[in-house]
Amino acid sequence: MRAYDLIRRKRDGEKLSAEELEWLIFSYLEGEVPDYQMAAWLMAVYFRGLDAEETAHLTGAMVRTGKFLDLSGIPGVKVDKHSTGGVGDKTTLVLAPWLAAAGLKVAKMSGRGLGHTGGTIDKLESIPGFRTELTIEDFLSQLEEVGVAVTSQSFALVPADRKLYALRDVTATVESVPLIAASVMSKKLALRTDALVLDVKVGKGALAKDLKMARELASLMVDIGKRAGRKVRAVISDMEKPLGRAVGNALEVEEAIATLQGNGPEDLVELCLSLGSQLLELAGLAESEKEAREKLRHVWEEGRAWEKFKEWVKAQGGKVEAVEDPSLLPQAPKELVITSPDTGFVEAVDALAIGEAARILGAGRERKGDPIDPAVGVILEAKVGDWVERGAPLARLRVREKGVEEAEALVARAFTFSAQPPPPKPLIHEVVS
Ligand code: URA
User: Fold this and answer.
1) How far is it, in rounded angstroms, from Cα 278 to Cα 273?
2) Catalytic residue among 27, 83, 152, 183
3) Domains defined for the chain, CATH in brackets
4) CA pair distance 119, 121, nearest whole angstrom
């Protein structure tokens, strides 16, 4: 086989076989196919696409370049949840202990933030002492004993994805639905959980800017999962505006804690109930969505999700006192208030602008490996649909020195106003199964 032929055939829109895709991925990983040929092939895929069968074969080949993490020795139903990334998305912090308290085993490998989107690992690291690089042994024993274990991708399960992603990043080929689907699902399949729910974000702050792309991505990922014999569903959820009110690492941990204690923002609670009930159903712990929601609410109202969160923090070396008293989490030295220039209803809050503002303040990174500041970020005082008077607070910026003026301008511009209440928009667009 020659890489040249596979590039030419994909350029011309031909379908590649399982054997050809396997050869390409392994030859690339072994250095027999150079970066320049792989880059040309990726660009051909960007324009010509891959069908569902090719995408599944590509994913399978990527998974086979590494190890599988077998969880079958651990009793109970093992589940995983994945988000395609958003602004203010602290769902894992709330949902992982919540599901564990409901009787599931939550096994999760998470990433760091990049660009305007945050990452669960950065958020967890804002808890003093919290270890995010678990060994396989620690990961497995914690999963069995506590019911929840979240690690960074410290044991690289899919080496092909690392190498391919780095190449896509510098060749403008990240934004391809089949390449994203294969990348995400290769990591999900390497961690052998029994059930998986995918939170596919759509809107200004998401990778998928419109519903068409979100549907394609969700359907393709569900299809890959099913072909591999997994129980999987995808929930397409809104990312036009930030989720909850807090954007920034320690600020989001604080909001997650409030949510676990029963005082969280409505949209975050609703998203957790939606994703969680899909998983409870898939895991066979509930017969219907209604029953699953009731079970989850019961666990939450009894305070068991909050107790499980503390148990999880302790197991990963985090200071429990800092989550019991969030004033002990990292704190920014200054706060600035952005006030409303108008009187009216908040019509929109641009998630991308808020995410960018938080990144510029230091909460996120432009390039992989950049340091971040756990304390800084944005707290939204006004949400879409709220009535605000001129001069009323729209947002609070928790800042150090970095990027303050630029962030202030971005946050101020993120808000738009109208005389009429904006029509309600759904948080959950659809469930793909
Ligand atoms: N996240 C991933 O893991 N891979 C992609 O390609 C895009 C987002």
Assistant:
1) 8
2) 183
3) 3-49 (1.20.970.10), 78-324 (3.40.1030.10), 331-418 (3.90.1170.30)
4) 6
Say yes or no: CB of residue 208 within 6 Å of ligand 1: no
Separation CA 296–CA 174 (nearest Å)? 36
Kindly indicate the confidence band of residue 115, based on its pLDDT and cuts at 50, 70 and 90. Answer: confident
Q: What is the ipTM of this complex?
A: 0.96
What value does the mean pLDDT of the chain take?
A: 96
Nearest ligand 1 atom to the CA of 179 is: 6
pLDDT surpasses 90 at 111: no
Looking at the DSSP bridge assignments, the partners of residue 234 are 198, 432
Take atom 3 of ligand 1 and give the residue whose Cα is closest.
Answer: 184
Beta-sheet pairing, 428-432 with 393-399: unpaired
The HSE-up count of residue 406 (CA atoms within 13 Å, CB side) is 12
Which residues, in sequence order, are CB contacts of 194 under 8 Å at separation 6+? 77, 78, 79, 230, 231, 283
Mean pLDDT score, 143-150: 98
Residue nearest to atom 8 of ligand 1 (CA): 180
Q: Which atom of ligand 1 approaches the CA of 184 most closely?
A: 3
- β-pairing, 393-399 with 377-380? antiparallel
Interatomic CA distance for residues 62 and 242, integer angstroms: 33
Lowest pLDDT segment from 113-117, 221-225, 374-378: 113-117
Residues 16 and 24: their CA atoms lie apart, in Å, by 10
